């Protein structure tokens, strides 16, 4: 797919990806414990890092000693806040706006990261979009292409762009979803992309193990982020969001971020191709 084939983000259709600055109540992103230097001297590139899970991961990585490249689509206010959070932890940060569905943007983002920090150790593929539809016939060709472009092609392009800079001890962490395991009748295209991400994670882990690069994934359940209230779920469903989990509530981004930290640092040195499941106790995804 050339950049001429890249479809415009669907931010005008349903307000996605949404602004955390406009969300009430605000998601909990703040790390819950002091850092212990587990990522000291490392550089992480995180897509979709302006808000939600991506912001929480950026904050936690910074607390553990990493400099962070914050990739985001167009939410400049949220990205500035995340940059301030990273810098508040005493680490360096850059914010790079653009569409991960564009191969050339992914290449430019990695180049800017190397220019700013001189290295890249951790790639977190997190950016995503979803659009609920009751009937598969309501999913337009444009929506199907756009959802795969962001959720899957973006991951693929980022790995391609980053690989020359990753080395022994580096880590790639892909964000999949509980919907890959349990299914979602209203998110057919989204859940299909998450299935592709899981297969990609497992296959890529085997392809890169000889290089000493570990590839794993995280499959969150319902997490309170801008994605759902800004178009990812029907408005009438938001009051019940997450209440169908065994824990009876949605998760918070800072309850997911430690899974990414575990997979990014040496604590998970004997794991590749695995997926962690912070999902409120939904055992159908294990």
UniProtKB/TrEMBL annotation:
Region annotation Disordered: where it falls in the sequence: 1-34
Oxidoreductase as UniProt keyword: yes
Gene3D superfamilies: NAD(P)-binding Rossmann-like Domain
Keywords: Oxidoreductase
Source domain of life: Bacteria
Signal peptide: none
A GO term, aspect molecular function: oxidoreductase activity, acting on CH-OH group of donors
Keyword Oxidoreductase carried by entry: yes
InterPro entries per record: NAD(P)-bd_dom_sf, Sc_DH/Rdtase_CS, SDR_fam
Bias type Basic and acidic residues, positions: 10-29
Family: Belongs to the short-chain dehydrogenases/reductases (SDR) family.
Protein's UniProt name: SDR family oxidoreductase
Native organism: Sphingomonas sinipercae
Lineage: Bacteria, Pseudomonadati, Pseudomonadota, Alphaproteobacteria, Sphingomonadales
